[in-house]
Amino acid sequence: MKKSALVLPVLLLLVASVVALTVMQFRPATTTQTPTNSTYSHLGGDFELASLNGPVRLADFEGKAVMLFFGFTNCPDVCPTSMAVMRQVFEALPEQQKERVQGIFISVDPERDDLERLHAYTQFFHPNIVGITGTKEEIDAVTRQYAASYFFEETDSAMGYMVQHTARTYVIDTQGTIVDLVGEDEPYTTLLTKVRSLL
């Protein structure tokens, strides 16, 4: 009888230990883990370029989700399409959230995109999008930071040349870290979902 009385508590203790170990093994990941951020941790960072209203830094928008795109105002398709997608994202957000989102359009064609033209171009799509550019050296430094690329291509058109460039929107969180990239062929709902997740 005494032996049986001792066996039961021992068995219960063993079962409790197994259950505890199982719970610890399958405990959900904590919110401090950010695997998406680490994917692009080698990209991005602060920069400073010029806008019609003065210098603009990425750090100016700390606390906001940012959508960033490289392009040029004479772009016939990809740039206006991507800017229209940004506009759709802003239009889909309630006012309170809209104030916490910023669009940035970086022109890689400063020779033709002066600050007045760039401002008018971005404001046509939405007032929360700022157009910025700089010298070739400044632009090259930013494109290197963001692993973006561009090059000029001579054409027979009246424009003289075209610019081939990276066609993706960088989604940047409220601390200035790139969390995702959205391709130009994605519907606006893809970008909207990623931006909303940061608010």
Automatic annotation (TrEMBL):
Binding-site residues for Cu cation, renumbered to this chain? 75, 79, 165
Please report any disulfide bonds recorded for this protein chain, giving both cysteine positions. 75-79
The answer on whether this UniProt entry bears the keyword Metal-binding reads: yes
Keywords, A to Z, come to:
Copper, Disulfide bond, Metal-binding
Tell me which domain of life the UniProt entry assigns to the organism this sequence originates from.
Answer: Bacteria
- Is the Metal-binding keyword given for this protein? yes
Entry's family note:
Belongs to the SCO1/2 family.
Provide the protein name: SCO family protein
Question: Which organism encodes this protein?
Answer: Salinispirillum sp. LH 10-3-1
User: Taxonomic lineage of this organism?
Assistant: Bacteria, Pseudomonadati, Pseudomonadota, Gammaproteobacteria, Oceanospirillales
